[in-house]
Write a structure and sequence with these properties.
The complex is a heterodimer of chains A (about 100) and B (about 140). With about 100 residues, chain A is mostly helical. Chain A contains 5 helices and no strands. Chain B starts with a helix and ends in a 24-residue tail after the last helix.
């Protein structure tokens, strides 16, 4: 249970950091958005170090790829990006991979 | 230039794997009674953090000399390498489902990263999200 809670924190913080950072660099507000994104990245790394205490490395590293899936899904509504089929395909493969890790 | 970029890419992948390995050792060696922050003072964990800082710096240098679309698909192999290190060096029991999952994730990350990264302002082409591999691979 703790394991999945930490995974959730890592994913949420990574996705938030990347989206805020990209938003700041492209649409303005970088002066405060970039520092905030770094704070989220630091939180994500801290949660990752705690995950390593309760989960195996062969699980902990690959499972963080779930952030890629969420970022792809949010890139369109948040960053107004055009997401092509190859990117969706890659995200789908990663999602299947993460689901397999949960088995 | 390409050979240099490849060597740097190999260094990036290896530094990441070594950093995660040392960090794992440190976090596991830290006594359970030690809090989450003090556990990071375990020598192996500190070495791991140091290696991961070096990984970030080398990755930045690599991005100076090579395209992101060249770097990311290759560094995606790190997902798989970490699973290998878990199995071989840490004695973890990696199930068939987990190996398959790591393979899918590596393929997915490589495929996602191989899409065009140019920022366009028109209607043609694609734009990419920041994506990437977080700080883990």
């Amino acid at each position: 249970m703790t394991k999945w809670l930490l995974v959730g924190v890592i994913i949420a913080c990574t996705v938030t950091a990347d989206l805020i950072q990209a938003h700041g660099m492209r649409k303005g507000g970088a002066r405060w958005k970039v520092p905030v994104s770094i704070l989220f990245l630091a939180l994500s790394f801290f949660a990752f170090t705690q995950l390593l205490r309760v989960a195996e490395l062969s699980f902990a590293v690959p499972v963080t790829a779930a952030s890629l899936v969420l970022e792809t899904a949010l890139a369109r509504p948040v960053l107004k990006e055009r997401v092509g089929w190859r990117r969706w395909g890659g995200a789908a493969l990663a999602a299947i991979g993460v689901a397999l890790l949960a088995l | 230039m390409k050979a240099r970029a490849l060597w740097h890419t190999a260094g990036v992948v290896l530094l990441n794997a070594a950093g995660n390995y040392a960090l794992t050792l440190g976090m596991r060696r830290a006594p359970a009674a030690v809090g989450p922050v003090l556990a990071l003072l375990e020598p192996a964990a500190m070495v791991g953090v140091g290696l991961l800082v070096a990984w970030l710096l080398l990755r930045l240098r690599l991005l100076q000399m090579a395209d992101l679309s060249f770097v990311l698909p290759l560094t995606a192999i790190g997902y798989l390498l970490n699973a290998v290190i878990g199995a071989v060096l840490l004695g973890e029991h990696v199930t068939a489902a987990r190996w398959t999952g790591a393979l899918f994730i590596t393929g997915g990350a490589a495929l996602t990263s191989s899409t065009p990264h140019e920022t366009d302002t028109g209607t043609a082409g694609q734009r990419e999200s920041p994506g990437g591999q977080g700080g883990r691979s």
